Amino acid sequence: MLGMHGTVYANYAVDKSDLLLAFGVRFDDRVTGKLEAFASRAKIVHIDIDSAEIGKNKQPHVSVCSDVKLALQGINKILENKGANLNLDYSDWRQELNKQKVEFPLSYKTFGEAIPPQYAIQVLDELTGGNAIISTGVGQHQMWAVSFISTGSLVNG
User: Are 83 and 143 in a shared domain?
Assistant: First the structure.
């Protein structure tokens, strides 16, 4: 997750990126912070089913108003017809981001015998092998769930 409630490494990745693929996202102030500085090096491709979201806060370089599945099918067809070779090596970039994850890990405070909610979510995820389906409302617990669930499914209520 990025923005003010996100991780250092997610924000770092967006800040240093040269291409930002934004599919079904809102560029609200909690994500972007200062609009001029957000992804300032990146070309932005924004795909959204809601035309009102495209260019509302951050102007994309390429915009597509569509269901993401249909848009990606169309993009894939174009690339296949052009014979695009997309075997690119991103290992250095991934290594750089992994370094950021190690340097700035997610953490939470503990209070004696009390069980922090982040810990409970993390343990639930581990005990279910990442296969738990977790439903949240909106608020702090939603942000904890997004941050401390590794591979499980999160259903926003």
Answer: no
Q: In whole angstroms, how far apart are CA 59 and each of 15, 45, 53, 133, 140?
A: 16, 9, 10, 35, 29
C-alpha distances out from residue 77 to 45, 73, 74, 84, Å: 17, 6, 5, 10
Mark whether 69 and 133 lie in a shared domain: no
Does residue 43 contact residue 18 with C-beta atoms inside 8 Å?
yes
Please state, in angstroms and rounded to a whole number, the distance separating the CA atoms of residues 92 and 94: 5
Q: Which residue has the higher pLDDT, 64 or 157?
A: 64
Domain total for the chain? 2
Q: Tens of pLDDT along 24-50?
A: 998 999 899 999 999 999 999 999 999
